[in-house]
Design brief:
Order of helices and strands: EEEHHEEEEHHEEHHHEE
Helix content: 25-40%
Structural class: alpha+beta
Strand content: 25-35%
Shape: globular
Largest sheet: 6 strands, antiparallel
Number of helices: 7
Number of strands: 11
């Protein structure tokens, strides 16, 4: 792993209080500086198959495939960001192929949010409504934008924030792995600071807790990833645990290289 960023991380996935099966999956490989949360969907337990395939394919791709060389065509992306994007696209293809081989798994899919550190940056890839938050200097910011029908209506100002929170169709996903061959992956590149805390989660967490509740835990325990993760999990289950809950918390202890270059800017690209 690149030694420019020193961090600690902890992750957990939990079935919650209502569901019989856990269709979420997580991947956390500190040595390679990446973490992934996937929230599966589909009948006959196919959701858990899709999320497991996604995690495994991303792991294999990041471990074995070489990063693309910079070129004029992809000059706005770092090789690390492109590498992460290509891992997600490979996972999408694997899920589609698995569905073709088994009628019971037809239509299975999964959301996915992934982050990987390199130098003083984090490459981020995102599809669906699993989220990535950053907690910095006491403020919690959602870095990803949900691919949901409700979010589209919010963006078009057809819903107020209050209407969105109470919408019956707020879980309708507009983008996920396993649905189409030509997958659109949202990409971001984040300049990282010492003491940043990152939270990756499925909607089983943010669907149960408001952002200010999440921020309170990170404010009090963000320096201890395991303690903060377990606190959030317990709060989500206490609030009803209506869905599977997956959480990864990353605490950045030190950014050795390029610290002076870090800013609040997050570059947002779509591919």
């Amino acid at each position: 792993m690149d030694e420019s960023i020193h961090f600690r991380a902890f992750g957990i996935t939990d079935v919650g209080q209502v569901r019989e099966h856990n269709e979420d999956a997580i991947g956390l490989v500190v040595e390679q500086g990446y973490m992934v949360v996937a929230d599966g969907m589909g009948g006959h337990n196919a959701g858990e198959v899709a999320s497991a395939i996604a995690i495994d394919e991303v792991r294999q791709y990041l471990s074995l495939a070489s990063r693309p060389e910079p070129s004029a065509e992809n000059a706005i992306y770092s090789p690390e960001t492109l590498h992460l994007r290509d891992a997600v696209i490979t996972a999408n293809k694997a899920i589609l192929e698995a569905a073709k081989r088994d009628d019971a798994r037809k239509g299975m899919g999964t959301t996915l949010v992934a982050m990987q550190f390199s130098g003083n940056r984090a490459a981020i890839a995102h599809v669906g409504d699993s989220r990535l938050y950053r907690f910095r200097e006491g403020f919690l910011d959602q870095l990803t934008t949900d691919h949901t029908l409700v979010q589209e209506w919010l963006t078009r100002k057809l819903y107020t924030e209050e209407e969105a929170r109470n919408a019956k169709n707020k879980n309708v996903i507009t983008r996920a792995l396993g649905l189409v061959e030509d997958l659109e992956v949202d990409l971001l590149e984040e300049l990282v600071r010492s003491n940043d805390v990152y939270l990756l989660c499925s909607d089983g967490l943010n669907g149960m807790l408001e952002d200010d509740e999440i921020a309170k835990v990170l404010r009090e325990q963000g320096n201890e990833p395991e303690a903060a993760t377990m606190s959030l999990l317990n709060l989500a289950n206490a609030a009803g645990g209506k869905d599977n809950i997956s959480i990864i918390i990353v605490c950045v202890d030190e950014v050795v290289a390029g610290q002076d270059e870090a800013s609040d800017e997050t570059l947002d690209w779509f591919d």
